[in-house]
Amino acid sequence: MTADPLAVHKEPTSSSEAARRAASLIVAGIEGTELTDQAREVLDLGVGGIILFSRNYRSRDQVGELIGALRSYAGRKLVVSVDHEGGVVQRFREGFTRIEPMRAIGERGDARLAFELGQTMGRELRAVGIDWNFAPVLDVDTNPENPIIGDRSFSREPSVVGEFGVALAEGLESEGVASCGKHFPGHGDTSQDSHLELPELPHSFERLRAVELPPFQRYAEAGLASIMTAHVLFRALDPEVPATMSRAALTSLLREELGFQGLIVSDDLEMKAIRDHYGAAEAAERSLLAGADAFLCCAPNGTIFKVYERLKAPSSEEFERRLSESSLRMAAFQAHWAP
Q: How many domains does the structure of the chain reveal?
């Protein structure tokens, strides 16, 4: 991956260049199992990536043809991604190895198994054209009442989550598929689901350092590809906004203290934790300024275009600097991982 700090252009950015950069930071959802008019419209915008779901999948052959059609129509570097964690979060099932929940892997006590599982995932995903897998989950499952993480986590122990998460990520990347550690700085102790509401955690910073952060620290030290933000408000870290929009979380902590140099991608901006409090467009702007590089817009609707319109009109020199920096990081990510 390209090292920080990235070189940025000093000249004022033209409106067309700003529009190109803005579009390149969006990872968009599409409808259907073949190339549709909606997918063409999204690709015409110039998005940097596509995320696929079960709604886009019928079979291995079909999804491979869809990905080929997307790349051919785009005519440029395009990263194609999916949530393929295993357990309840596995978008492609028929024709793929059925993967156990990560808790079952962690309980076996052998990180080599996690590496080999990552290799299996990577081989199968790469064979159909997937470049980027939103796994592993690096959340530490410390709250039995957590409605969204549970057995998606390797363990209730930070050291196990870090060891097994990095092993799985390295297995994925050894087969040419970018990994994504999630959800920074940790979603494991919440009692709310950020798909439905904005979770808050009152933990001290000392607690975050002891429990939530070690797996992400280990992932950063391993030089792996990407980290996804959490739509969670950590009061000790930033009492005003969730981590997705927090400079304290994404720049001061993740970039500067943990030394992470890969791509930072937001969780889906359509989730209610964001939509009901900020709106996707505002959240994207604030997240970019906070330090994020790419933005998930998973629903095949007008949100993608609202985010694009917001990002293509830099409102300050700092916004323009961040737009340039993140577009360069996305371009480096595409060059490394996309065919």
A: 1
Residue 193 has pLDDT above 60, yes or no: no
Helix 111-128 with 60-74: angle, nearest 10 deg: 60
In a domain, 301, yes or no: yes
16-33, pLDDT tens digit by residue?
Answer: 899 999 999 999 999 999
Tell me, yes or no, whether 40 lies in a domain: yes
Question: Is 11 inside a domain boundary?
Answer: no
| CATH number, domain containing residue 168 | 3.20.20.300
Catalytically annotated residue among 139, 267, 268, 293: 267
One of 195, 238, 268, 277 is an active-site residue; which one? 195
Q: Which domain holds residue 32?
A: 16-337
Pairing of strands 26-29, 84-86: unpaired
Q: Check if 267 is active-site.
A: yes
Q: What is the pTM of this model?
A: 0.92
Residue 280 neighbours by CB under 8 Å, 6+ apart? 269, 270, 274, 297, 303, 306, 307
Per DSSP, the three-state class of 32 is coil
Asked whether residue 180 is domain-assigned, the answer is: yes
Instruction: Respond yes or no: is residue 336 known to be catalytic.
Output: no
